[in-house]
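Good day; I would like, with your permission, to put a structural problem before you. What I wish to show you is a protein chain and, alongside it, a tokenised description of its three-dimensional fold. Thank you for your consideration; the sequence and its tokens are set out here:
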Amino acid sequence: MESNTKLDPHCESLMQQFHDLRPTLEQLAEDAYDQLSRALKEQGIYVTAIERRVKTEKSLAGKLELKGAKYKSIDDITDLVGLRVITFYTDEVDKVAVIAKRIFNIDWLESVDKRKLHQLDSFGYNSLHYICRLKTGGPRFELQMRTALQHVWSTIEHDTGYKGDVKIPREYLRQFSRLAGMLELIDDEFSRLRTALTDYRRQILALVKNGQLDEVPLSADTFRSYLDLHPFDRLNRRIAAVNQAEIYPVSLMPFLSVLESFGLETIGDVQRFIDDNSEDAYQLALSQLAITDLDILSSSVGLLNLCLVFKLKHDGGRDGLKALYDTINGENDTNSMLADFLLKQAESLPFMNHKE
């Protein structure tokens, strides 16, 4: 044992007990970490970090020098093994706590929720602390649960020596308190904002499901939800029937920016876009497929032809068509040839003679 701290015989005895117990503590840290990590993953809870450590002999010696007399044996020291879970949001601390109560035995007399102490300068220490034991037994260990902002603030306090031996002038203490209060407010507001956004998404999904599409703004989330209704399947099947082709699925999300560029602002606008252009999109696809023997088509075929028709109807011209192909396929020389070919194919179609 290496320590520069002078300990009395009782504390030296505790240090020897710790030295003998260390292999068990190392295994305990590993087992507790594995069990908690696995349980969080199974419940779909993603945290910013899970840390584990076994107290060093130097750290333990310092602790014993200050208050070694209160411990009768090494088993009375509950933080020889420590786990720390750092969450993104304040409400996730409680979710982690629920899981901890399920997989570990909790010593409620020793555990403390420092979040309820409400000290003015305690933001960085507002962790939820559980003293735990594995279900299979063994020594106790400490589990700390805190948010990322609380963890950062705690680190800053430690780095600046805020809790050190030197007395900090009142003006600096006041600045620390003000910053701590601001961070605590930010921590709470992030959680409130996430809850509000979750509720908003649920409301939007309900509107889409119930067909109230004009009340749903067009966005990545709402378009993705709308696609779950398979709004292009009917047109796809009709086009595929031309050559008895099979349809393989692809993502339609790249078309979102195209639809937005058309001035579509709600999901209701997208539905009208489909209704107004489906027949012409079918005729455009028919003019191209009739001279081929393609028997495999992507699930974007309907939406692509709808977009092409829209461009043609609104005088998109060669440049507009090329820009559309560039957006969907990525910029390349082939897109210019596709635009020229499409213009030629579309010349004889009825809607080209009735453009707005």
About this structure: The chain has two domains: 9-186, 220-353.
